[in-house]
Amino acid sequence: KNKRTQEIYDGNIIASFAFHYIPERDSLVTASVWNQWWNLFWDPPFDRLRDYLGTELGLYFAFVTYLGKWLWIVSLVGIPVYVCFLVKLSNAVISALNLAYSIVMAIWSALFIEFWKRRNATLNLQWGTVHLDFDQSDTVRPEFFGTEMAGFHFDRGFVKLKDLADKRIAELPDPPRSEPDRLKTLRELGIPVNRHYSTTARFKTFIVSGFLTVFFASVAVAAQVVLLYYRDDIIDGLGNVPAAAIVPGIANGLIIVILDVCWGILSVWITNRENHRSEESYNNSLVYKRFAFQFFSNYTSLFYLAFFKPFLSRIENQCTIGWLESTPTCMSDMSFQLLTLLATRVTVSQALEVLIPYLTSKLGVFLTWIKVRRQIKKSGNANRSTSTSRYYQESNLAPYHSVMNDYNEIVILFGYVALFAVAFPLAPLLVLFNNVVEVRVDAFKILKIFQRVNARAADEIGAWEHALQVISYVSVVTNLGMLVYTSNSLDFLFGDLDAWQRMLAFFLMENILFGGKILVATIPDVPMPASKKLERQKFDIALAFGIDMKDHYKAKRQFEHPVVSKDEEDAAAFSFDIASDLSGEN
């Protein structure tokens, strides 16, 4: 596979892809897209998807479906909370609900991540990817360049063997003079020779890419802040237009989508310049760039409404009266903004995900048809068929490059829920419906619209798990910040609080929630049944091949009656392990 990838990169092979097996593909489309479309608790056929598409995509579908199950929990909690807001219960009740829901959302994200790890471990055991080594030293990206020298790579860097190489070359009666001959001789002598990219050059590229990421993220933040700062002026300028109130939110959502698409292209260009050696390192770097940028581009408007607008002197009185009557806060503005952003992002993203590859494939088929028609006219054979083979048609389908964009969409929506659902408790329900649709839409586009993917192995969701962890920890700050500073809920529960009391309440609850997250993190990543099966596998391997035979795998002599002897040597002769025998009697 690696050699084929290198040949494609060098231009020796035009394209290389597997063809769809039509009966299995169509059966999978029926089972994964159209089956039980009315069932919100439905699971796609994970094992069949994994067999046809590979464990990387199988794991993606499992992740999205598992997130949907956890979204049900906060959706069922959020619906009655939102109903209480609508019927305008007393301020004390609404404030208490705000407090409870903030705590639930902060803990929910941490619990989801930990239990997903357990689900992931179970799937790894089921799919045989427990001991998958994703970053082997002999798997090199064809785009990687560097200076060939004696040495080898390991997971933290490069070990040079110049001293050993010089010594072995010096021992030769006729040492090579040119560098290519020298490297060839070293390989013949059994000394590893690999491409090495200097640490200094790599550090410089990382500095430049980091600067570009920060710069473009700042541009995205500035554009949204300007739009939000003049939001009310824009609404007033539209006059009596019925949809004037939602225009700024829709504009903000479209700006976010456009910026994300532009940054997606630019981030690939930047990451290519970093010259990563392994596919895992390349993907992780790209994930970190995209998430860092999109964290600010997607959430800036909500951070602004929650923590900046209420304290700006120019518009300090422009927050509307919301759930807490007679108390102007920005919670209602946040609720409306979050609803608009979710609706815009989900609608536009779903359209782009399906329409662009569909139109691209249809355009390719149309151009192929025109090409065939021209060839027929030139040949003068008017009776020749214009139809093309299925294989030629599949070559015109758009290739499915990576699952990264699909993960990216799900993680950003997860952030909307974990960070800001307190402002709009129906947000988990909206994201849940999107997840239900997302699984089917993704299955349809991957199976029908794209070329058949090259199956890739994976044992985890990679760097996206780190992104989820960041969102989980930030959710503590955002949920408590909205509770203490944005909604003024504590004032109705404990009386009017001054600045110091608010700060004390914030840090006290923050420490409690972070302590709760630490306790949640102690949950074992591997469930007990899976752990037992893994240990049984290790035992069977040790028993069959004598590999890694641990002491507790070995049989110990058992006696029907205890052996009593005053002679220590006699006791040792009759006992395999005195210490374990004694401990077993307790």
Automatic annotation (TrEMBL):
Membrane topology, from the record: Multi-pass membrane protein
Domain Anoctamin transmembrane: 49-536
Annotated source species: Timspurckia oligopyrenoides
Subcellular location: Membrane
Signal peptide: none
Keyword list, A-Z: Membrane, Transmembrane, Transmembrane helix
Taxonomy, superkingdom: Eukaryota
Protein name: Anoctamin transmembrane domain-containing protein
GO MF annotation, one: chloride channel activity
Keyword Transmembrane part of the UniProt annotation: yes
GO cellular component, one term: membrane
PANTHER family: ANOCTAMIN
Record keyword Membrane present: yes
Record-annotated membrane-spanning stretches: 57-83, 89-113, 205-230, 250-270, 291-308, 351-370, 410-433
